[in-house]
Design a protein that fits this description.
Length: about 130
């Protein structure tokens, strides 16, 4: 499992390089897109389970690439929210394509039947049920 995880990370990183974004930035960008309204930095840190400083660094990099921008909260001027830019939305489309290509690279050696079995096995591992914890 660990070897496969490392291989997945290497393939994903290779597919993300042309987009000009790191895997961590990719994850943050996708997270911003999943919030109904622009999230606060603290919301992102909590959802990503990282310290707020890590989010600040990621946002700085994405902001430098015009993928996100900091905007004031309309109801609390002390709060800063993070919103996607048009470039950020375009980057998300590129990321979806890159992730599909990476998945295809990884799954290429498998037949259709093997892919279906793997999907079932991974689903069972990803959602073990309430009695197994985590």
């Amino acid at each position: 499992m660990l070897r496969l995880t490392r291989r997945l990370h290497r393939i994903q990183k290779r597919h993300l390089e042309p987009v000009g974004i790191t895997p961590a930035q990719s994850r943050l960008l996708r997270m911003v897109a999943h919030f109904g309204e622009p999230p606060r930095m603290a919301d992102l840190a909590a959802r990503l389970e990282v310290v707020p400083r890590a989010v600040t660094s990621l946002v700085d990099g994405l902001e430098a690439g015009d993928r996100v921008r900091r905007v004031p909260d309309p109801s609390n001027r002390r709060v800063v929210r993070i919103e996607l830019t048009d470039t950020g939305r375009a980057t998300l489309r590129e990321l979806r394509s890159a992730r599909r290509a990476a998945a295809e690279d990884i799954l290429a050696p498998l037949t259709v039947e093997q892919r279906e079995v793997l999907e079932g096995l991974l689903s069972a591992l990803a959602d073990p049920g309430p009695e197994r914890g985590c």
